[in-house]
Design a protein that fits this description.
Blueprint lengths: L11 E5 L3 H12 L3 E5 L5 H8 L3 E4 L13 E4 L4 H13 L3 E4 L12 E5 L2 E5 L6 H14 L4 H18 L3 H18 L5
Helix pairs in contact: 5-6
Length: 192
């Protein structure tokens, strides 16, 4: 697997399915700034609310061929293997990224469990083999990763931008950033 973080802002994402699992995926896509389109014959109250608030576009019907046209990323969250396969086949025909929730055979990417500390993201994956284990490791990391790292991310970005303006030599910029982090991590009690 090739781990990446995708910029989803203003990119079209199709979610096929309207239950609780789909609602969680929709919320994550909205938080990333995606333009979310939902196709499902029935939807849970959370998805209905998002549609009524204009946060997602919703078509209450079964998935059809060509529904993936125009999408950047596709999520199949139907709980029906045959529908998930049809979604995957259509998405792959178009060369799209497709994830079928809890159905690794119908994915060309997996969504990792994530720890969020400010802008710091730590992704955990078992490559689709044990998603529950990924979730448990994520929960453990959430308990042990210091919250102060969020401030350090911001301070490091500030210094990095200042150095880009003032120091043309990339090796010297990197050395200054490394020295800053090696000093700040223990000073803030983040390394023992």
């Amino acid at each position: 697997m090739y781990p990446i973080f995708l910029r989803m802002e203003k990119r079209p994402a199709l979610v096929v399915g309207g239950g609780q699992v789909a609602a969680r995926k929709i919320e994550a896509l909205l938080a990333a700034g995606a333009e979310v389109y939902v196709i499902a014959p029935e939807v849970c109250p959370e998805v209905a609310t998002l549609a009524s608030q204009g946060k997602v576009s919703l078509e209450q019907r079964a998935f059809r061929r060509n529904d993936c046209d125009g999408a950047f990323l596709v999520i199949a969250a139907t709980g029906d293997g045959a529908v998930n396969r049809a979604v995957r086949d259509e998405a792959e025909r178009l060369g799209l990224l497709v994830n079928s929730v809890d159905d690794p055979a119908n994915c060309n990417f997996y969504v990792p469990a994530q720890v969020r500390v400010g802008d710091l993201r730590i992704a955990v994956s078992t490559q689709g083999k044990a998603p529950m284990l990924s979730g448990l490791v994520r929960a453990w990391l959430e308990r042990v990763v210091p919250r102060q790292l969020a401030d350090l991310v911001e301070d490091t970005e500030t210094l990095r931008l200042q150095l880009k303006e003032s120091e043309p030599d990339s090796a010297k910029r990197n050395a200054a950033l490394r020295a800053f982090l090696e000093r700040e991590l223990p000073a803030r009690g983040l390394l023992k």
